[in-house]
Amino acid sequence: MTISDTWHRLPRPVRIVLARLPLLVPQMLGVIFVTFILVRLLPGDPVLLMLGNMATEESIATLREQLGLDGSIWSQFLVYFQNLIQGDLGVSMFTSNPVIKDLLERAPATLELITYAMILTLLIAVPTAIYATVRPKSIVDRASRVYGLAAGSLPDFWVALLLIFIFFTTFGIAVAPFGRIDPMLSAPEFVTGFYTLDALLAGDLQAFLSAGSRLLLPVITLAIVNSGALMKMTSSAFGEIWHSDFIQHQRASGVPERKIIRAALRNSLPPLITLTGFLFGFLLGAAVLVETIFSWGGLGQYAVMAVINSDYPALQGFVLVAAAFILIVYLIVDVLYEIVDPRIEV
Q1: What's the predicted TM-score (pTM) here?
Q2: Residues 200-237: tens digit of each pLDDT
Q3: What is the DSSP letter of 98?
Q4: Alpha-carbon span 318 to 341, nearest angstrom
Q5: Which of 5, 6, 41, 50 is 20 to 30 A off residue 31, Cα-Cα?
Q6: Where are the beta strands (DSSP E) in the chain?
């Protein structure tokens, strides 16, 4: 049996993953190098921030040596890369914890937030776009066009502050925008890192309700800001299929409209999967300000504090994790894209 025969015997998703994996290595190496250089160009000296303006030259030199900032930028990169290969992302200059520990503790908070935000975005954008296309000139169609134009210009921090003002400050129907769970309650035992799921698995209804109520405003914020782009893309992709010849033929043949809509949606999946994957990766960066406003304690808030404090290891670790997350999402998108479109040869 030849290598080619063995390759084609593998399941299609496995072939897709194996074909894409070699591309991830040079991409990650590029991210590591560029991130290291750009972080060093940030204004602010972490040593002076840690010691204060009254620090002596001797204490500054000593701390620089301890932090490994006394060598040339190339020697610093070499040391950083060697440590990275061994799984060491360094120690945060301000939390004094290993960066990998900080990231692992905060990642579930961000993933829970953006996952629910992505689900809500899909539930808003896709059905609305389909209905607007199937029922042109309806109220939904007109409203979706206005919303699609406006949503892209709405800053997420402004939407977050507006929702807090309306639902917490004015009407008092939302919980305080501080953290993931009521400070008087204990976090559920770690299983997935998602407080809502872990609380359900533990049978702790009170913790589930508390975690769910604190997710509402940040999730709605991200969904409001990002649904417009997905709605417009869905309208474009679905509309092109909806007005195609084979759909017209189905309609003329008396096929029920519900089946026609399903067929049009199925043929619209490739571009929708691509945009959904892109948007899911984008949400990781979009959540930075939202997490800060809601004191969420996730990766976004960690990144903001790292920038403010010129915490090189923490910021490098965040960018590295974000890049790895986005590349994995794009890999999954490639797999799904080529599964729904069997014309692509692997």
Answers
A1: 0.86
A2: 999 999 999 999 999 999 999 999 998 888 898 888 88
A3: B
A4: 34
A5: 50
A6: none
